[in-house]
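Problem 12. The chain below contains 94 residues. Write out its predicted structure in token notation.
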Amino acid sequence: MTIATEHHYIVRDGNILQGEPIVGGTRTSVRAIVELWRLGVTPEEIPVHLPHLTLAQVFDALSYYVDHQAEIQAYIVRNEVPDDLTHPAARTDA
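Solution.
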């Protein structure tokens, strides 16, 4: 069941990513968009990497993040890959 949020493009669906906020009509989480942005990808560049998204959807996801930072941060932490499972060249502490 899809549940609307106060953000036009952002929904929750218990059947997709266990209800994590996503861009409606996709399986792309707000978390994924925020993580790209935090890596230095500008909002305008994100649709280049995720061409199924519009710039409006990207900005709405970032707006959702600003309004729900603790929630999205919890999803980011929950989905982190442990250092012992990552290649040494990909680690930020190396």
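Discussion. The chain is about 40% helix and 10% strand. Students who got a different answer should revisit the alignment rule from Section 12.3.
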